[in-house]
Amino acid sequence: MSLTKLTCRLWLQRVSRIKKGFCSKVPKTPIWEELDNTKIPNVPQIDQEMINHLERVSLVEFNNQAGIERLSKAIESANKLHMVNTDGIEPMESVLEDRMLYLREDKVTDGKCKQEVLSNAVKTIEDYFVAPPGNIPLKTKERDYGSNSNGS
Amino acid sequence: MAASMQKISSHICQLCKRRYLTFKHKRSSSNLKSKPWKSVVGLEIHAQINTESKLFSGAENKFGGPTNTQVSLFDAAFPGTLPVLNKGCVEAGVLTALALRCTVNKVSKFDRKHYFYADLPAGYQITQQRQPLAVKGHVDYCISDKNSFETKTANITQIQLEQDSGKSLHDEKDRISLIDLNRCGTGLMEIVTEPDFSDGTDASAFVKELQKILQTIKTCDCKMEEGSLRVDANISVHKLGEPLGIRTEVKNLNSIKSVSKAISFEVKRQIELLENGGIVENETRSFDTEIDETVPMRDKEVKTDYRFMPEPNLPPLHLFDSESVKTVSSKMSVINIDDIQQKLPPLPEDTRKRLEQQYSLKRRDVAVLVDNSGLVDYFEDVMRLSPTTSAKLVSNFIINQLLGVLNDRKLTIYKCPVKTEDFGKLIDLLHTEEISYSTSCKVLDEMFEHPNIAPKDIVDQKDWRQISDTQILTNICEKVLEEHPKLISKYRKGKLKYLHTLVNKAVIDSNNKANPRILKQIMEDLLDNK
């Protein structure tokens, strides 16, 4: 117990020292700025076609009034970002962008776990996953390989 | 003034009842017809990287393993798994970029490209869209047919690293797809070219050259039949001097022949469509090798929205040169571009140029030597062992005779029983006219049967030595002339072809052993002096 208290006190000391040493860029209290709403882009009209498209690409269902309202609010909220001045600033995609990307040696260390890989499959045939028919070439004339055997 | 006046009308497609707008240029159609069509082709080539393991996982990367055994949990997109980049794939990508004379980006980034398909469990493919591994390269390649031989340059837009997808087997009867994820996550280099190709022959010649380059640097085995090199072609046609037409994409061409045939067919199809007043649709097609035609894919989506976004699990990939590498403390994940440049072996075009200069060979012959793997080594070995031999004769004999004999016997040059030393001796015999050209072919055949007997011994045993002694040849000629006075008079009347007949008769009289060049000379002299 006493050890915990001690480390806790040491940590508090360190925090206060850091506070003295550095000047944080984050303001201590929130600052509110009024945005000029006329400059923010309007929320576009969301029609059925757009909803269908979004549902398809996001695999999220929101095809009801509440869903459309939520989407409109999200767009409205995101649109405020247009007011931030980002001239001449390179976009940051990751806080790790200055770090080295770790590279693995080219060796086989994984795989050979068919059982686990297939464990979530609803249906399998001879170790294959079974899926609905995919995007396959449209044949101009249906080449019916069965037609000959029908005749015979 | 030059701005073309457009008349907009519409027609309704009989099949799909869709309304199409047609833009009619006011410039008279006869003017349009007189201008030739021009086809423009750009390629996207997917080359599987020849590594032990996959791009982001340690699962084995080998063709034809048992179904779903070369799959790690990451490849199957289990939640919580993360990508770890394979150093070997990056090195192979950089080597390829240098071989294609690209500028390698010191920093490249990974992106997610989203689409839903059963052979892509994660719902997205990790690729390099915004900042690829390398940009702006060029490749010299040769196009040859019977009459012409041309060297062209194709420009490479970019090379990016990306994941391959799994494989689907379509069962049309039961309306299901069977999915094998063994290929899922294999490292790919996508090589994108500028629209620099004019037709199928042109594009396929480039693919052939690329294949040779990748095989030389061993970054891809390029077995198109196994799918380790796949070509997508973007094709459009337009009238000369007008903007490019609407393009179609023909996907997954998996042989050189298919590349050539699919593009030729698609160009023809588009021209016919446009000449009949139709409109080319921007669509994805596939090539049916059974009927040699391109066919549309079943799904005709609106423009696919791939929703590209930065891959959050992979920070940017940094590469170094000999200068910047000094600033790095840990050498573990470091790849030095300059080191890889050192490892770059001579490329096919380098070899062609060297052979041309070193042996003064014709470019066409050099191209044949380089085209067939192992032939250059064989040729150079012959030249090294008998440096006095005529290089031209050696290369001609390899191309015109040796290759044929090897083909007949279904052998590769690596299994050729004729030692390069003996081959050189055979060419020496031919060069010094000790044997005739036709005899040398027979000797070559014998050498395949009895690889341990020296060509000289074969010639002696079979008594195939050519007669070049002028006295003996003069005797033969005189005898022939005595026997055929009619032919002499015909020749004297100006029918020069009878010289040939006489020479032939003399050759037969000598049991095919007379040196035809000297014989002809003697015969001519005798005829003209008599």
From TrEMBL, chain A:
InterPro entries: Asp/Glu-ADT_sf_sub_c, GatC. Its main location: mitochondrion. Keywords: ATP-binding, Ligase, Mitochondrion, Nucleotide-binding, Protein biosynthesis, Transferase. It is found in: Mitochondrion. It catalyses: L-glutamyl-tRNA(Gln) + L-glutamine + ATP + H2O = L-glutaminyl-tRNA(Gln) + L-glutamate + ADP + phosphate + H(+). Its EC number is 6.3.5.-. Coiled coil: none annotated. It comes from the Eukaryota. GO terms for biological process: glutaminyl-tRNAGln biosynthesis via transamidation; mitochondrial translation; regulation of translational fidelity. One of its GO terms (molecular function) is transferase activity. Pfam families: GatC. SUPFAM superfamilies: Glu-tRNAGln amidotransferase C subunit (SSF141000). The keyword Transmembrane does not apply. GO terms for cellular component: glutamyl-tRNA(Gln) amidotransferase complex; mitochondrion. Belongs to the GatC family. Subunit of the heterotrimeric GatCAB amidotransferase (AdT) complex, composed of A, B and C subunits. Allows the formation of correctly charged Gln-tRNA(Gln) through the transamidation of misacylated Glu-tRNA(Gln) in the mitochondria. The reaction takes place in the presence of glutamine and ATP through an activated gamma-phospho-Glu-tRNA(Gln). PANTHER family: GLUTAMYL-TRNA(GLN) AMIDOTRANSFERASE SUBUNIT C, MITOCHONDRIAL. This is Glutamyl-tRNA(Gln) amidotransferase subunit C, mitochondrial.
UniProtKB/TrEMBL annotation, chain B:
It catalyses: L-glutamyl-tRNA(Gln) + L-glutamine + ATP + H2O = L-glutaminyl-tRNA(Gln) + L-glutamate + ADP + phosphate + H(+). One of its GO terms (biological process) is mitochondrial translation. The keyword Transferase applies. GO terms for cellular component: glutamyl-tRNA(Gln) amidotransferase complex; mitochondrion. It holds the Pfam family GatB_N. Keywords: ATP-binding, Ligase, Mitochondrion, Nucleotide-binding, Protein biosynthesis, Transferase. Its EC number is 6.3.5.-. One of its GO terms (molecular function) is transferase activity. It comes from the Eukaryota. Allows the formation of correctly charged Gln-tRNA(Gln) through the transamidation of misacylated Glu-tRNA(Gln) in the mitochondria. The reaction takes place in the presence of glutamine and ATP through an activated gamma-phospho-Glu-tRNA(Gln). This is Glutamyl-tRNA(Gln) amidotransferase subunit B, mitochondrial. It comes from Mytilus galloprovincialis. The lineage of its organism: Eukaryota, Metazoa, Spiralia, Lophotrochozoa, Mollusca.
